[in-house]
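Fold this sequence, please.
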Amino acid sequence: MSGDRIIVSSDIADEFAERLAQRAEGLRTGDPSDPQTVVGPLISASAARRVAGMVDEAVKAGAKVRSGGGEPDGAVYRPTVLTSVSPSMRISNDEIFGPVCTIHPFDTAAEAVAIANDTSYGLSAAVISEDIPKP
């Protein structure tokens, strides 16, 4: 399972993004046969370039790179965390198929549900909360 879109309460979104970015920076990339590697290559160098292009496009439209980004190393793309992503951006709506996640803050549960449902994709989802019964 790979979470492309992470929907997080606005009151902790900045701290969450910073901590996630720090963790992502520490993930070793490269040869999947190396037991120290956490993020291996994509299926091809062109797939990694496609992911890099999606990130670059989002940044040009106003997204902020908290970690990762840049040019791929062959088929390897660094784990990337993006914030300030809007629903109009392709990276917010298309499957990324790479080690990139976007952070989407919300203020109310209804807003979180609306963000979660604002996609054609829904292969996996999870809710992590200290207050699950809260509407």
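Strands lie at 5-9, 64-67, 80-83, 100-106. The chain has four helices and four strands.
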